[in-house]
Amino acid sequence: MDESFNRLLVSFFLGGLISLATITNPLSKIPVFLTLAADLEAGTASQEARRACFYGFLLLTGGLFAGVFILEAFGISFGALRIAGGLTVALIGYRMLFGTTDTALVGGSGSFAFFPLAMPGIAGPGALATVIGISSEIAELAGGMRRLLAYVATVAAIAATCLIIWLVLRSARWVSRRLGSEGINVVARLTGFLLICIGVQFVGSGIRSFMAGA
Q: Got the DSSP string for 63-123?
């Protein structure tokens, strides 16, 4: 394979992996997962974690290939996406910070794999905006082979990110036993506060983008 193709693969894989791993912040998912899986058996909780990461992979991959077209088809701006996602993230953070619970969050079946763990936990506004941005960069590449390799590298980066998150969630209860209930409570409250801050930041960024577009 041509050296430039190798550089292209490495560039898009590492760039996508670093960006997505930073934005999704796998360690921050531990308190969320433990809160949602508190009443589940270990096997059931592990199954929910696998499903969440699989859903997250599908959502991010779908965003990579179709995100721009979907937003344009429905007339949704990047600003509106960030505002909606930010409000959702902030709501989850609020519930974690103040320790409130609501069965509506997990649906009637008690499954939380898709919402809120996969979306917006894994495929949140920041992650979706990242893959959509990468998609726009790929579209500007010259040559079909270069675009194909860039897509392959980015999908691999998405898969690697979801694998990391799954490994973290798989060890969540082990971490919980080491920290104890008080330690987990502290981490959950701090994570909740951080999620509120992240949500507000997304909303603020979305408003600026929305107003600039208007």
A: HHHHHHHHHHHHT--HHHHHHHHHHHHHHHHHHHHHT---GGGT-TT---IIIIIIIIIIS
pLDDT tens for each residue of 104-149: 444 445 688 998 899 988 998 778 888 988 887 888 788 889 999 9
DSSP 3-state of 2 = coil
**Amino acid letter, 76:** I
Nearest to 158 by CA among 43, 84, 63: 63
Contact between 127 and 20 under an 8 Å Cβ cutoff? The reply is yes
pLDDT per residue as tens digits for the range 75-93: 877 778 778 777 877 887 7
Contact 51, 113 (CB under 8 A): yes
Q: Report DSSP state, residue 27.
A: G
Q: How far is CA 20 from the centre of its chain?
A: 8
User: Which runs of consecutive H residues, i.e. helices, occur in the chain?
Assistant: 3-24, 29-36, 42-74, 78-98, 125-139, 144-170, 172-213
